[in-house]
Amino acid sequence: MQLLIYLVIYPFLWLISILPFPLLYAFSDFIYLILYYVIGYRKKTVRENLILAFPNLTDKERLIIEKKSFHHLCDMFLEMAKTMTISQKEINKRFKYTNLDVYLDLEKKGKSIALMCAHYASYEWVLSMNNHITFKGYGIYKKIANPYFDKLVKDIRAKFKAYLITTKETKPTIEQNTITNVLGLYGFASDQTPRRSDNLYWYTFLGIETPIHFGAEMLAKRYNMNVIYLKVTKVKRGFYEASFEVLSDDVKSVPNYKISEMFMQRVEQQIYEAPEFYLWTHKRWKHKKTD
Questions:
Q1: pTM for this structure?
Q2: Can you tell me the distance from the alpha carbon of 228 to that of 212, in angstroms, rounded to the nearest whole number?
Q3: Degrees to nearest 5, angle at CA 161 with 158 and 162
Q4: Whole-angstrom Cα distance, residue 246 to residue 227?
Q5: Are 221 and 251 in contact (CB under 8 A)?
């Protein structure tokens, strides 16, 4: 059944990927109308999140953000499909790094790097970074249930010299690379909700007590990695800029959880600047802090 689903959907994704960008975004406009007005995909979740994050806005103001966020979501989904056939030249034109020297200077320190980024703007096209670096690039991801789509996603990333490892594979991979002296760049999208456990760390994010991931920081400390933040902004439709900020080049001197808090502060700042480019369809506040 999984193979059948793949064989049915794959040609559709491939056809999307070869569309010229003007047609791609025209199709995105159509998908938006279906997704938002007909299906109403996770509309309730988005509205609940926006009410929690922006209680001082009017219903009309939140509705504007809601619609823009769904429009951006459709764009990003089709841009993900476009990655199947997009050229390196094209993606470099559309996803630019404004201060790559900051990252390259960190490479010269001779330690592996933990890159922290958010589900904001275009987190999919960050994979193009691997054509600008010398370290081996890894992206930490959640394995897709359908093995055929899982392999497809890995193959697409490999085209851009990006290697996907699951959360379970992350620690063994870093440990093995440390033993064999392989310097790596490990990409963590750490802004979403962690699993419910007794070891949650709570932080006030967007004015709400929120459990946050701190695995990237703990791994960075354990294996003495430098930590950098990648801020991605949407310039206009189909065009993005990314800039780097070093969070720490001496992680063991930083108090526990401080780096994770610094990361969340930067994500929060981006959301306040342009909330429509954040992934609001995720149930960000499904865990509540109790006494």
A1: 0.93
A2: 18
A3: 70
A4: 6
A5: yes
